[in-house]
Amino acid sequence: MELLMSLVIGIMFAVSIYLMLARSMLRVVLGTVLISHAANLMLINAGLLKRGAPPFVTGDKNLAVVDPIPQALILTAIVIAFGVTAFLLVMAYRGYQELGSDDLSELRGVEDEH
């Protein structure tokens, strides 16, 4: 299961980097969202995908428990990714309102030589 998840995470990172290198602002925002999801999946995978008891101290010492640290890191990463995504969407929308285009080369003032 961990090998399959590692393959999916690698594909998600590759697709997100491809989207972030595009010229459209919307694709850059989607790439940012996808890379944050891939990072969250990587943290889940690092926490050893297993089922067990909740991460509370019990009387039974031989009981398999789930590590709570990756869960806490993922929760924090979700909140940060939501804030960054909201900021990027507002910035992309405002740039489209002002300039009438979402092409990043037009936002830099670079003209095509076609």
Could you tell me the CATH topology label.
Answer: Helix Hairpins
- The helix fraction, in percent, is 55-70%
What is the overall pLDDT average? Answer: 84
- Strand fraction equals under 5%
Structural class: mainly alpha
Biggest sheet details: none
How far from one another are the termini?
49 Å
CATH class: Mainly Alpha
* Count, helices: 4
Assembly state: single chain
C-alpha Rg, in Å? 20 Å
What are the main properties of this structure?
114 residues; mainly alpha; Helix Hairpins
What can you tell me about this protein's structure?
With 114 residues, the chain is an all-alpha fold. It has one domain (2-54, 63-107): Orthogonal Bundle (Helix Hairpins), CATH 1.10.287. The protein contains four helices and no strands. Helix 1 packs antiparallel against helix 2 (25-46) and helix 2 (25-46) runs antiparallel to helix 3. It is elongated. The model has no long low-confidence stretch (mean pLDDT 84).
